[in-house]
Amino acid sequence: MALKKVAVIVAGSWGTALARVLADNGHRVMLWTRKAAQADEINRLRRNEKFLPGAELPEGITATTDMAEAVADAAAVLFVAPSSAMRDVARQASPYIPENALVVHATKGFESESLKRMSVVLSEELGRPENTIVVLSGPSHAEEVIQRHPTTIVVAAKDISCAETAQDLFMNQSYFRVYTNPDFIGVETAGAIKNIIALGAGLSDGLGFGDNAKAALITRGLAEISRLGEAMGANPLTFAGLAGVGDLIVTCTSQHSRNWRAGSMLAQGLPLSEVLERMGMVVEGVRTTKAAYALARQHEVEMPITDQLHAVLFEGLSPESAVGALMGRVRTHEIEEVAVNPSARHSGA
């Protein structure tokens, strides 16, 4: 494949790790940041210490605060902005993105005000069909990718040729394997909502519960993700793949996970405002909990774990009371969505 210029927006941990993959593949990477000091650190010292301490960045990455410089003439533009900033940075980039450039995003969240998926936000701001926008997701800690540890992800787009172009762009036979999937709704939904379950896993561990509790949380969390995803038009098989159960496992079981760490701190009695201040980075699961809580009501889907986490985060419920509420729910079948009453596939927990 011919080497290409790729713009990566923004220079957080995941954007920087993916910039390394692209640079390792021989592409010329322009990494955009709002902060001049960060751009200078990347260009002079080959470091991004706030987000990936100790990692040395290859020469193929150049940082800039100039959006036009970053995006102009790019063969592909990768958006890795937080969900809360996606619309703003897409609007800034839009005038400079070449008409034939591939657009990819790797952000796991919803726009909290509109409840829209990130591909919808990008489609609106860039004036491009949603089916051509590629979603990159899967079990992938930036801290491991930057060290070139073996990682496998998925790229999804309804237009499979766009997904295959992204696959070729990111595939690295040494350490970064990429699969394609046409179910971009399922991939986006799974990637966003797993952050809620990871908050719950952190709470569980912070309360001193063991593996039994975490296994139950992950399994029933996957049921919640699948119910909402199907209601939004996703293929249920997606949730058994990398973007579903794969990402859920890695985010719920690793201290690399910001959402896990935030949940653990909440279990120690710290208020949400202090947790977010201590984290110093975006914790997508907090905003996603609010969005998923609203989406569940919009689609008439039961999401008891999400409901209880919403109560802990925004209604003052104690983590211990949330666990009691989940354990004391009315008895039900495990797989009633399919086996017992197919017409009531969005109920239960």
Task: Produce a short descriptive summary.
The chain starts with a strand and ends in a 9-residue tail after the last helix. The protein contains 16 helices and eight strands. It is α/β, with parallel strands linked by helices and 349 residues long.
Structural class: alpha/beta
CATH topology name of the largest domain, in short, is Rossmann fold
Strand order of the largest sheet: 3-2-1-4-5-6-7-8
Looking at CATH, the homologous superfamily of the largest domain is: NAD(P)-binding Rossmann-like Domain
Computed Rg = 20 Å
What percent strand? 5-15%
Question: Which helices and strands, and how do they pair?
Answer:
Blueprint: E1 5-9, H1 13-24, E2 28-32, H2 36-45, E3 61-64, H3 67-71, E4 76-79, H4 86-93, E5 102-105, H5 118-126, E6 134-137, H6 142-145, E7 151-156, H7 160-170, E8 176-181, H8 184-206, H9 211-231, H10 242-253, H11 258-267, H12 272-279, H13 284-298, H14 304-314, H15 319-327, H16 336-340
Parallel strand pairs: 1-2, 1-4, 2-3, 4-5, 5-6, 7-8
Antiparallel strand pairs: 6-7
How would you describe this structure to a colleague?
This protein has 349 residues and is α/β, with parallel strands linked by helices. The protein folds into two domains: 5-182, 3-Layer(aba) Sandwich (Rossmann fold); 185-344, N-(1-d-carboxylethyl)-l-norvaline Dehydrogenase, domain 2, CATH 1.10.1040. It is 50% helix and 11% strand. The chain contains 16 helices and eight strands. The chain has helices spanning 13-24, 36-45, 67-71, 86-93, 118-126, 142-145, 160-170, 184-206, 211-231, 242-253, 258-267, 272-279, 284-298, 304-314, 319-327, 336-340; strands at residues 5-9, 28-32, 61-64, 76-79, 102-105, 134-137, 151-156, 176-181. It has an eight-stranded mixed β-sheet, with helices on both faces. Helix 5 links the parallel strand 5 (102-105) and strand 6 (134-137). The longest helix is centred in the middle third of the chain and has 23 residues, at 184-206.
